[in-house]
């Protein structure tokens, strides 16, 4: 065991020094790579190996985000932040927080091409309490990318009969419309594979389009997208050695408008409709066993957010109104299947400026309510000192809350594979944190230390002798720290991350032997992303992750320590502008670590591809 830890440590330690092996040769011209879409600035490889690119693709090696995959991230991914669970993390597009009322497993079902979105921001603490929605711990927030006249076609082939294709085309009108620019883009993408393990096949398709109007101060985006995903995996959700499948159909229609002169003086408004259909099969060889298990959810939402600058201070405000509806063949044991939500947040901010920097003090609150649950009023307090040289120190305390999903509330409490509890109530999270950001010796450093208390958190648990997972409330205290270090030169970009977490959990009188989610977390997690320009059109991109996972009796293969890596080698011929060749490898070391306890890991996969951009 000790030898394996040393070997993993050496692999991780050597990765950041790859740039030193490619010092610029005297007189050599540094080849300027053509501009292309970056899905996440903290991750090296933007293109997945085995599936079409989705917003979740750029989060797998994100230092502040832990993506726990079933089959592959684009198949089913549980996304957590700071040791939370998959239902504690929200997704936000523009002003609108997306929501799946059935289960947080489907929160990442977003039929938007990553090329349409800006790089995500990870909102935690006071920022999440203000701008998040029904997400206690964190929110992954995307903005809409301004459309430029360009296009891209790509295809790739890999092992396990993998192939993927995509086409993106965008155009900008040469004539002004209502004093602004009218533009549009469309994305078509598909992927297919037999899977890296037997019965791990997938077939994905997406079609998305957008119309955009913008001028010097405003941008309006009207979007429509649809996505169909079929995939299988042994032990997908249950640890009983059965080949399970998911068949998902997602639709999203969205309107977002933003206008303003700066980040401190703007307002943004939007609305969306989301429909998600799920057909789950426990045993693909015997369709209908423990079934029918089919669900359709519909969500309608309206949101308003802004910041108004009043010289010595800023007034920040946020509001979201949402309704949902569930139709299900199995989730029929609860008290309701429709719900209305309301969130309001107002946070005034005061500023004092001196020769050494600026002090900002914020104090406000958010209000969350539904027609099915008790309301919650949550304070938000923060103080920040920004130095004139660019450094920043902050301290904040914030509370946030959310309500359970229908799978937890409406599943049969005494029979079946997933056992619910109709009496689960509102969950409350209290977060205290401090941190600093500064630059030193060419490095940009960001850090945070936090303590979070989650009360009545809904977790899914395992008890010996019970062949099901059960929804139980738990009180959890989490201590943690984060550090992200970034260095960028014309030759390379290096992103290092470290997260340390510790937890104490209390399930009350419940008889719990293991937790599938709340206690499935990395006590230590290190990431290293290297983006290296080799010259003459070659580029090497390497993502690394090393983790020490909390022990869990449900994890029967792979141990509690894991090394993950993804590598991409790209070649852009200098004399053939727009053309790109790539060779990608995922799970480079062929790790069998079970990211979700009891769920088999995907094996090493590779692909070669070609793309043309115009």
What can you see in these coordinates?
- It contains three helices and 30 strands.
- It has about 625 residues and is mostly beta strands.
- The protein has a single domain, classed as Beta Barrel (Maltoporin, Chain A).
- It has a 22-stranded antiparallel β-barrel. Strands 4-3-6-5 form a four-stranded mixed β-sheet. It has a two-stranded antiparallel ribbon with strand order 1-2.
- Strand 11 and strand 12 form a beta hairpin.
- The longest helix has 13 residues.
- The N and C termini lie far apart (about 50 Å).
Structural topology:
Elements: H1 2-14, E1 66-70, E2 76-80, E3 89-93, E4 96-98, E5 121-124, H2 125-131, E6 138-142, E7 150-158, E8 162-177, E9 180-193, E10 202-214, E11 218-234, E12 243-262, E13 265-281, E14 294-309, E15 313-328, E16 338-353, E17 357-370, E18 376-387, E19 392-402, H3 406-410, E20 418-419, E21 427-440, E22 443-462, E23 469-488, E24 492-506, E25 514-515, E26 522-535, E27 538-549, E28 561-571, E29 579-586, E30 605-613
Parallel strand pairs: 3-6, 20-23
Antiparallel strand pairs: 1-2, 3-4, 5-6, 7-8, 7-30, 8-9, 9-10, 10-11, 11-12, 12-13, 13-14, 14-15, 15-16, 16-17, 17-18, 18-19, 19-21, 21-22, 22-23, 22-25, 23-24, 24-26, 26-27, 27-28, 28-29, 29-30
